[in-house]
Amino acid sequence: MIAYLVRRILYAIPILIGVNLITFALFFVVNTPDDMARMQLGVKRVTPEAIEVWKAERGYDKPLLFNAGARGIARLTETVFYQKSVKLFVFDFGQSDDGRNISQEIKTRMWPSMAIALPVLLAGLAVNITFALLMTFFRATAIDFWGVVLCVAMMSISTLFYIIAGQFFVSKLWRLVPISGYEGGIEAVRFVILPVIIGVISGIGSGARLYRTGFLEEIGKDYVRTARAKGLAETTVLFRHVLKNGMIPILTGAVAQIPLLFLGSLLTESFFGIPGLGSYTIDAIGSQDFAVVRSMVFLGSVLYVIGLILTDISYTLVDPRVRFE
Amino acid sequence: MSYAAGTADGGEPVLSVEHLATELEGSAGTLHAVDGVDLRIARGETFAIVGESGCGKSMTALSILRLLPEAGHIVAGSVSVNGTELLSLPEAAMRNVRGRRIAMIFQEPATSLNPVLTIGRQIAEVLQRHTQLRGAAMRARAIELLDAVGIPDAAMRVDDYPFRLSGGMKQRAMIAIALAGEPDLLIADEPTTALDVTIQAQVLELLRELQRKNGMSILLITHDLGVVAHMAHRVAVMYCGRFVEIAPRDEFFRAPQHPYTRKLFDALPDAGKRGTELSVMRGQVPSLAAAPPGCAFADRCDFVMPRCTEASPDWTPLGAAHEVRCFLRATQPAGPFDAGSGAQSAAAPQGVSAELLKVRSLRVHFPIRKGLLMRTVGWVKAVDGVSLDVRTGRTLALVGESGCGKTTVGKSILQLIRPSAGEVGFDGVDLTRLRGAALRRRRADFQIIFQDPYASLNPRMRVTDILTEGMAALGTEAGSAAMSRRADELLAHVGLSAEVKERYPHEFSGGQRQRIAIARALAVRPRLIICDEPTSALDVSVQAQILNLLKGLQREFGLSYLFITHNIAVVEYLAHEVAVMYLGRIVERGTVDEVLRTPRHPYTQALLASLPRGDVEVGAEFPRLEGELPSPADPPRGCHFHPRCPQAMAECKLGYPDAIRLSESHEVSCLLYRAQKR
Amino acid sequence: MIVVLWTDALLWALVAAVAAYFWHVHRHEHLAAPWRRVLQSSAGTMSLVILAAYGLVGLADSLHFRPAIGAAGDAHAPVYSVEVLSVLDLALAPLRTHTETTYSAPLATRAYARETVELGGGRVVREYPRLRFGGAQLAHESDRDRDIARRIALGAGAGVALWLVLVLSLLTAIARRESTSPAAAWHAVWSGRTRVAWRGALYAALALLVLGFAAASLSAEYHVLGTDKVGLDVLYLSLKSVRTGLMIGALTTLVMLPFAVMLGIMAGYFKGWVDDVIQYVYTTLNSIPGVLLIAAAVLMMQVYIDTHPDLFPTTAQRADLRLLFLCIILGLTNWTGLARLLRGETLKLRELDFIQAAQAFGVSHYRIITRHVLPNVMHLVIISLVMDFSGLVLAEAVLSYVGVGVDPSMISFGTMINAARLEIAREPMVWWVLVAAFVFMFALVLAANLFADAVRDAFDPRVRVGSGVAKAAT
């Protein structure tokens, strides 16, 4: 088990190197720093001097991979690749293109993101599983049929619609909660409640339908017939046997999501003005702040890889059959 | 033997089923899965339902418990247990019957246990539902039950999850669950079909022992007449949703009366039928959707009369508790049954023929990787030094239980799995040394037939494409016209008409698919065919057709077969030589007569003794083989068999015994025969 | 002058490929069987009709040309407009050209905002001015409601009439084929006993025809769905958005398909180091959260386009290329799921007896993959293609909102929503642009989802029970 985990963690290294190389290629090879400077400063009527100043301020004035002008180890370290890509491995994200410390921003912004994303995940799981169990229990009846129809209809609605409609009715028309904004502490609840509810509702369609399929697959298995042959009630069969088996992929799937919750949701945060990493990213995209986008790409893949490892661990915890060698 | 109990002595039956009819809604219309079944089972009696797949025997069992799949429903009849009518019970009351009055065990112990609950928990569920036991007392009872079904270290096993148990142990755990409610009736649906013969013998013996102790009744559902012979007091034969014959066991085996029953017996291969063709039924089992007005067997019956197709025959009593549903018996109570018996076929080529395949010290080892760097820490020795010979025009049977490595032998001879060491001499050329084109040139000489007729044909290819694929790849026929002619010829050889060429595999039955698979192998004119359990997925009547076909083809083309199987009866019927395999090695080999008549290795003896046969007395002890097949990753030191061997000696642990030659052709690897060496 | 945009060419190539596929399917019974099961479900035919309507709009919008604007002097060298139009634009010419100055509500006759209007005699008032086109034909505005009702009735009547013609011709065709009477065919259709679930298709056709004709009859004189900020007809915008949505949904899958199928099958078939490399590639790509990877790639593409303006002569071409790139990027981030699925299935398949038998014949790997593996995983490919479509249409809207979607000059559901979302805060608010975009998108996505469900049910062997062989009977 320990050996397996260590191997999984070691396997993460080449993945992160791959991610790093992809981002480096995307951000510095497809377009040169000159192009980016020109873009930022306005394509027309930009002087070469202005470009040089812009690059120097942000540290893009160094050679990409090899600095022939430097000496010793600095030939490699005084390069864009080392300064901007290699340093990501120690979570040194450097400064954003508008000069702020990215690491600092990430540290303060990930908690508001979490305050929305975690409740959405947990409440979403509870709601989706409940609906899926209901449909499973009433399978092949009208309740199941219309439940599935409702799910398909709900998953055909754009998230944007849920957000805009929610804001319009709840905040604007009924004035139940503020339309957007965020405060720390207990006050946060007022700001968080609507985004959370909307997040949960927009996920019901696909979630409940997916879980229903999983439960139905379990209910067709032989051990369910055995349980019925014991004389157990249908609810007991459903809760003790089907749910326990059907929950394994659901739980491990949720565990994989947990680290990524720190990244927040782009849409929700931007609509509700939550100062989280989601809105940070979206602002960076809007203002074409490459340093931030690059950092978020790397951070995202680190969190994803952590999620993979957590999934493996959770499998050994919830599924007695799984013992990794 | 109180075989007549229930119907004859008039005692209150535990289970009484009358006119039960069950339908299944399928895409092909309504299937009459159970079509008017009557049966009574007395206390302590074992009643067996035999029939081929699809005859409705499992549906009968599930109807009794009202556990039908969602597409199925009971349309008529009555089922009562100890006088309580079940079909009219509300569902809640029915649940008090399930597990308490009637318990059931299923065919696949591997999937019938909940994988994420401990064995103890799964037993406790029944105790909690149907008894007053709680807490420590409940746990103690669960351990007691596990102990009663012969699970060693029950106190520890109770907390294990099912995946920790072997197949045989899982079925024992299933039995423990079934016994927990102390049921009056146990329904056992093919309880040993998924198990090896030695394990099957253990489980059947356990069931009999439990019945002796508890006096419960058993409804046994099986396709295996051997199991019936061992277990049943009374037998019913089912065909197309109906019983066609009910008889006490002894009479059933001595004088079966229904033409279908007779055909079933005739289709069984055994030593006595060597050199003859097995009797086969013409046609196929009719669809359950049709429900013809007359006897369902009429189309295939050798004694069919005009009235057979007009009305369904009623029961004709033929003596104490023996009844048959056939007009033939209604008109002439006894008569000769000689018309259908097999025709004598020409004897297989005799005398010494040339050696075609010569395998020496074949080894196939798979690495076990572990740890941080995935280093190889050990080897699964699936095949560990196998030597065998197949002569031209002869059949060598390779016999063993599942997991002994026999399939790996077959695939490594074909070089589908590359052997780790050893030689595979084919016609003087060592195949293990051939690579690429050189090997491909030789491939036409040796081909393979597989077990599962559903997996062995590509569902997306037409029959003609399937047949010509090998010819095209190996270039054995010149041009597409020649290939097409050859395909027609092949279909004729395997008894199919050339019209089927444009059709796809899903349009054929299992037996027909197996014929196509045989034609595919024949397409490139091979000299050796490796038959990997080619009939074990088939019903007896279809098996007989395929065995006849294989035998005919051997005679016609001088083919050699390496016949891999666990079915001793087929070996007796078909093979010339036998090699018995245990845990990657051959423990005994010789001619069929030598090995099967005078088995010398204790494993061969135990294997033969474990076979349920039609000619034994009810209640006869099985010479049981204790324990189970060890892991090939960690075989026991010395002789692999010694931990299970009833005649093991101290020296057996020291080293693997060399092969000892007992006669020209008979060899055995056992220290018991050291004295006869040289 | 005919203009062939990149996406047009690819879309028509895709249409040709789909047509060729169905021609092939038509000739092979076992391939046609699952599609026949799709047509047996009412939800399947219903959604198919709606998708076909969307498809027609999208395809008509994918035939582009530059109109001639009179011959200037020399009669042999006509001059072409710089504006690129499509056949759809031609059909919707009134809608396209009847622009107002700014917002107007659906079916309104007056603008949504007060304007300073000069009356005769130098008097100036602030009022809601009459629209230039919306209801301009009315002598008295009070006649509006009656006029609208009349037009709806006329349009709906025409729709019903056309539908009845359709029903009659269908019934005669069925009656001739089954050699029964049209009356019997009528009963068969309405009780759902036909081999193709015509009933669902006819319901959908009725709804489409009635709505379509009513809208057409109204839009001759009104803005059925109002106008947007710059006075463009919202119905026109919604119809133009369809093409973008279809492109994203269809071209993306086209881009990812070769990768996913080839790499997935290779990984599963060859195992060993091939598998290791392919798994590494897709785990790495997968580890970057999708939106971020798309955002990064689109940003970089934007920089490239902006710094190389010389490569893109017209706005339409620039927007088109950006759309194509977006499809490619979405494809590159989306292939991993299908590849992983195919890898798993191939791992199982390669152990099956029929592939072992082919290996025993020495059949080459290439032939085994193309003849044995590929046809047996095709159902997974088809299921995943139709399932992905709706998600991609929804993703377009979100990406356009985030700012990494299609070019802002390209009409799409995303750009419509993005432009209108702030107007919801206005008093009184402008709701019709959002509602139109959401409704059009919802209908498309819902139809795609229902169709995907029907396809999955028909193709997935696990869902089907008791087909042919009476296996279930034991």
Molecular structure report:
The complex is a heterotrimer of chains A (325), B (678) and C (474). Chain A folds into 2 domains: 2-90, no CATH class; 102-318, Orthogonal Bundle (MetI-like fold). Chain A contains 14 helices and no strands. Chain A has helices at 2-29, 33-41, 48-58, 74-77, 80-85, 102-137, 142-155, 159-173, 188-219, 222-229, 234-257, 266-272, 277-286, 290-318. The N and C termini of chain A lie close together (6 Å). Chain B folds into 2 domains: 13-101 and 183-331, P-loop containing nucleotide triphosphate hydrolases (Rossmann fold); 362-457 and 525-676, Rossmann fold. In chain B, strand 21 and strand 22 form a beta hairpin. The radius of gyration of chain B is 27 Å and the shape is globular. The two termini of chain B are 51 Å apart. Chain C is built from 16 helices and 5 strands. In chain C, a hairpin with a 5-residue loop joins strand 4 and strand 5 (124-127). Chain C is globular. In chain C, 44% of the residues are buried. The interface between A and C is large, with 50 and 47 residues.
Q: Would you identify the CATH architecture of the largest domain in chain C?
A: Orthogonal Bundle
Question: What value does the average pLDDT of chain C take?
Answer: 87
Q: Which protein chains make the most extensive interface, counting residues with beta carbons within 8 Å of the other chain's beta carbons?
A: A-C, 50 and 47 residues
What is the number of domains of chain C?
2
Report the C-alpha radius of gyration of chain A, rounded: 25 Å
Tally of helical runs of chain A? 14
SSE order of chain A: HHHHHHHHHHHHHH
